[in-house]
Amino acid sequence: MQRPIGIFDSGVGGTSIWKELYQLMPNESTIYLADSKNAPYGEKAKEEILQLSIKNTELLLERDCKLIVVACNTATTNAIDYLRKNYNIPFIGIEPAIKPAALQTETKKVGVLATKGTLSSNLFYNTSKLFASGIKVYEQEGKGLVELIEAGLSDSKELKNLLNQFLHPMLEEGIDCLVLGCTHYPYLIPVLEEILPKGIRIIDSGQAVAKQTQSVLESNVLLNSSSESSPKKLFYSNANPLLLKKLVNRDDIEVSYLDF
After folding, report:
1. How many other β-carbons are positioned within 10 Å of the β-carbon of residue 109?
2. In 3D, which of 142, 95, 154 has the Cα closest to residue 114?
3. Which residues form the catalytic set?
4. CA–CA dist 109, 259 (Å, integer)
5. Is the alpha carbon torsion for 117, 123, 129, 132 positive or negative?
6. Which residue, 29, 51, 71, 164, shows the most beta carbons closer than 10 Å to its own?
7. What is d(CA 166, CA 142) in angstroms, rounded to the nearest whole number?
8. Nearest to 235 by CA among 246, 245, 250, 220
9. Closest Cα partner for 131 from 164, 173, 101, 111?
10. How, if at all, do strands 109-114 and 177-181 pair?
11. Which residues touch 121 (CB under 8 Å, ≥6 apart)?
12. Where are the beta strands (DSSP E) in the chain?
């Protein structure tokens, strides 16, 4: 099945998910939408997030996508139920990796860095309740981080100062796992590794999302098993295609501006 996988995010962060998808399934064609013009979704009302998610979904369906990865924690928590009910196509969502953190923590104390829209969602509450019984979860809104990453400032002094401010209270409490609850945040890992004491695990959901996508494609007989095809890797941004190209950092991708 050579139709593409569609992926959308409130900007460039979901490219961290795209990389995991490509590593696991290099034969699959992909179309990525970076809605950077409207980033971050985490600050928006639920209805606006839903309308943006519908717009992104319909753009990907117009391009004949066979499955859509909602590569945004906030869009997943606020829109994926609606999308699944109203479109006849599989959707894969993103949620903070509370379960693996709960399994790996030795101090029984876990930090979660996420957007306001994720931390205040029912999905986050239910996931924490289900998997973090007996675990103390310390939540921290990463206010301002997405904007800095979208501006190409993921190594800036301003960003490092924000991270220090956000992480200090959790470190004081004795966390030994930090869950990255936004697909933009894996791009902060080099800086986080500088800031965090050794031995603290940084956990994101990218690999699990890729495996789930592969499993759903297989069960729906949608997987492209041909190794002879030349998969397309199309990326569209409505704000900053150059940043998209820089983050993905491959010569075999096609990056374009699209007004959506």
Report:
1. 16
2. 142
3. 72, 182
4. 44
5. negative
6. 71
7. 7
8. 245
9. 101
10. parallel
11. 74, 77, 78
12. 5-9, 30-34, 67-70, 91-92, 109-114, 136-141, 177-181, 201-203, 233-237, 254-257
Secondary structure of 148-213 in HEC code, one letter for each residue: HHHCCCCCCHHHHHHHHHHHHHHHHHCCCEEEEECCCHHHHHHHHHHHCCCCCEEECCHHHHHHHH
Taking only the tens place, the pLDDT of each residue in 211-260 is 999 999 999 999 997 766 789 999 999 998 999 999 999 999 999 999 99
pTM above the 0.90 mark?
A: yes
Return the structure tokens found at 228. 């002879």
d(CA 254, CA 113): 32
Residues 6+ apart with CB under 8 A from 260: 33, 35, 55, 56, 59, 236, 238
Give the mean pLDDT of 83-105: 95
* Calpha distance 256→33 (Å, rounded): 10
Axis-axis angle for helices 206-219, 15-24 (nearest 10): 50
* Contact call for residues 57 and 83 (beta carbons, < 8 A): yes
Q: How far is residue 207's CA from residue 229's CA, in Å, rounded to a whole number?
A: 24
Q: What is the Cα–Cα distance from 38 to 211, expressed in whole angstroms?
A: 29
Q: Which amino acid is at 79?
A: A
Q: Round to whole Å and give the CA distance between 238 and 240.
A: 7
CA distances from residue 64 to 3, 4, 86, 185 in whole angstroms, order as listed: 6, 7, 17, 29
pLDDT at residue 68 in the model: 98
pLDDT at 1: 66
Residue 62 has a pLDDT of 98
